Amino acid sequence: MMRILVVDDEPDLIESVQLGLTLQWREIEVLGATNGDMALEMVEREAPDVVLLDIGLPGRDGFDVLRELRTFSDVPVVMLTARDDAMDKVKGLELGADDYVTKPFNHLELMARVRAVLRRHDMPAPASRTPSFHSGDLEVDFARQEVRLGGERVELTPTEYKLLYHLVRNAGHVLPHATLLAKVWGRDYMDETDYVRVYIRRLRDKLGDDPDHPHFIETERRLGYRFLAPR
Predict the structure, then answer these.
(1) Which of 64, 108, 157, 218 has the greatest number of CB atoms lying within 10 Å of its CB?
(2) Residue 79 located in a structural domain
(3) How far apart are CA 147 and CA 72, in angstroms?
(4) What is the residue range of 192's domain?
(5) Residue 189 contacts by C-beta under 8 Å, 6 or more apart in sequence?
(6) Is 136 found in the same domain as 118?
(7) What is the Cα gyration radius of the chain?
C-alpha cells in the first residue's frame, strides 16, 4: 500500500488531493496534516512513501518543516506553492526537496510528479561493466553504487548519485543541461535547469569541491558541466 502524506492548512485541498489520487491510483492511502508539527509527527509515526508539503503553512512554514524533516528522514518531498517563484523553488531544492508543483494543479499533473519522484528514488543508476572510477582520492564504485572520498563513504541521495554517475561516465566531456535533465530527471523536466544547478551545488558540497578551483566538476557557462578527466 502506497502512503502519501499531504501537508496543507486547507482541509478542502487535502480532501481534493485524496479524492483525485485514489480515483486514479490503486492501493494508495492519502494521509493529511494541517500544520508542520503534525506533519513531522506523522512522518515519524506513519512512515509515508512521499510527502506533499505546502510552503505557506501557518506558524512554521514549509521550509522550516522541510529543514527539520531532513534531519531524520530522506522520504521524497514534493513542495506545493501558490506562487511560481524561482527563488522559492531553488530554496526548497537546496533544503532537500525532490520536486515542486505550483498551485493550482490538476490531479494528473500531481500524480505524474509523484510517480516521477518515486521512480528516481527506486530506480538504480544504470549498471556499468567498469568496476569503479578513481579521480584523486575520489572513488565511485559502480557495482555497489557507493562513493568514497579519502576512504570515507559519501552519503548521496539516489538523484545525486545518478547525476554523479553520468558525469563520471563521461569524464572529460561537457554534458549539456538538457542531457543531464533527460538522463537523471526525465524528459518532462527539460526546462528545469534550476534542478541541475542546485544538485551540482549539493554534489560539490559533499565532495568538498570548490567551483572556482574545481578538482572534480567544472562549469561550462551556458552549456553544462564537465567532470574533469583523472590526471
Answers:
(1) 157
(2) yes
(3) 21
(4) 132-227
(5) 116, 181, 182, 195
(6) no
(7) 19
CA dist., res. 148 & res. 66, Å (int): 27
| Cell matching residue 154 | 559519501
**Cα 185 to Cα 195: distance, rounded to the nearest angstrom:** 9
Q: Is residue 127 part of a domain?
A: no
- Strand partners of residue 227: 217
CATH number at residue 81: 3.40.50.2300
Tell me: do 157 and 223 sit in the same domain: yes
In a domain, 34, yes or no: yes
Confidence (pLDDT) at 6: 96
Residues 12 and 112 in one domain: yes
Do 16 and 113 sit in the same domain of this protein?
A: yes
Mean pLDDT of 3-8: 95
Q: Using DSSP bridges, classify how beta strands 28-33 and 2-7 pair: parallel, antiparallel or unpaired.
A: parallel
Cell of 126: 544504470
Contact 52, 9 (CB under 8 A): no
On the question of pLDDT at 190 being above 70, the answer is yes
Tell which phi-psi region holds residue 171, choosing left (phi > 0), alpha (psi between -120 and 50) or beta. beta
Q: DSSP code of 213?
A: B
User: What is the average pLDDT value for the chain, to the nearest integer?
Assistant: 90
In DSSP terms, which residues pair with 101 in a beta bridge?
80
Considering its fold, how many domains does the chain have in total?
2
Q: How confident is the model at residue 130 (pLDDT cuts 50, 70, 90)?
A: low
